Amino acid sequence: MKQGLFITFEGGDGSGKSTQINRLGQYLQDAGYHVLLTREPGGTAISEQIRGILLDPENGEMAPMTECMLYAAARSQLVSQVIRPALEEGTIVICDRFLDSSIAYQAYGRGLGSAVEEINGYGIDGCMPDLTIYLRIDPKAGHSRISGRDQDRIESEPDAFHERVLQGYDSLYEKYPERILCLDAGQSIEKIAEIIREEVQERIRRRQP
Ligand code: TMP
């Protein structure tokens, strides 16, 4: 059976993920690979509808566990409808955020702890990234990068929340140093893109029989 490569991008708001995802996607496509870019929450019609509920600033009364389950539901749909079939076809899947976001934002940010991983386990069913690019940014610096646009419900959480999210990401990196590549998001766009390209090329080489 063919087996693709599953790459995720993680980091606080304003860490520059979208720019790097587009660059990597373009680079891999130009090199002749089948590439699929997707995002969380979203990436399917159902998951995009859930995204609308999750990020709507009008939904301020949402309970933390409701939030956690909606992210897990959006993810479950994306895995079964898009990610798993694409990987089985041998595609390189690049996803903007995945389970680590729920660990950082819901387990650490909201304080839901180990329940988050357990709940997500049902929908993911072992479909975990081969490589995760973690763009690390100080929450204040990230916030000032996105201050020019309207903030969604999560982005407009207070600084203390985003500090806990950062701690969450840092502990994930400590726990999974093989899977997660941590990069200082303050470096130039070109420098970050180059390091990511090299790491991905290495992972592709390792996959070849
Ligand atoms: P985006 O701004 O990167 O598109 O992500 C939407 C927001 O949702 C972002 O502030 C992070 C948040 N988020 C969670 O809180 N938990 C999750 O599991 C995911 C995927 C995103």
Can you describe what's shown?
- The model has no long low-confidence stretch (mean pLDDT 96).
- The chain is globular.
- It is built from eight helices and five strands; from the N terminus they run βαβααβααβααβα.
- It has helices at residues 17-30, 45-55, 64-88, 99-109, 115-124, 139-146, 159-175, 189-207, and strands at 5-10, 35-39, 92-96, 131-136, 180-184.
- It has a five-stranded parallel beta sheet with strand order 2-3-1-4-5, sandwiched between helices.
- It has one domain: P-loop containing nucleotide triphosphate hydrolases (Rossmann fold), CATH 3.40.50.300.
- It starts with a strand and ends with a helix.
- It has 209 residues and is an alpha/beta fold.
Rg measurement, Å: 16 Å
Specify the CATH homologous superfamily: P-loop containing nucleotide triphosphate hydrolases
Distance between the termini: 13 Å
The largest pleated sheet is described as:
5 strands, parallel
Q: Provide the residue-averaged pLDDT.
A: 96
Number of domains: 1
Bound molecules: thymidine-5'-phosphate
CATH topology: Rossmann fold
Number of strands: 5
CATH C-level class is: Alpha Beta
Spatially, the strands of the biggest sheet line up as 2-3-1-4-5
Q: Based on Cα principal axes, name the global outline.
A: globular
